[in-house]
């Protein structure tokens, strides 16, 4: 990206923003589907309310955490283990990995046959 300029740079940035938005929409939709399939019909409203509240809470504190993480990264420019901006990308990858792991069966609560019959 450092060698791009003008229209090529704009196209690359707009494309990256569109891909990011598409992935975010797909992720949120997938999580809602997983949640709605694991909760019985009578409890879906409560589960959706709790998950929306949690999502909005973490969206509100995320800028504070990101600022602290970037500040830490700037202080660690000469560190031997995870120097500088590598800390940021390692943390982002760990959060993404944690989200992926929680979608597997040992963590994901599946509905029982009794829950599906109601």
Automatic annotation (TrEMBL):
Transmembrane helix found in the keyword field: yes
Top-rank lineage group of the source organism: Eukaryota
Keyword terms of this UniProt record: Membrane, Transmembrane, Transmembrane helix
Keyword Transmembrane helix tagged: yes
InterPro entries: MFS_trans_sf
Stretches that traverse the bilayer: 12-34, 55-74, 86-110
Protein name: Uncharacterized protein
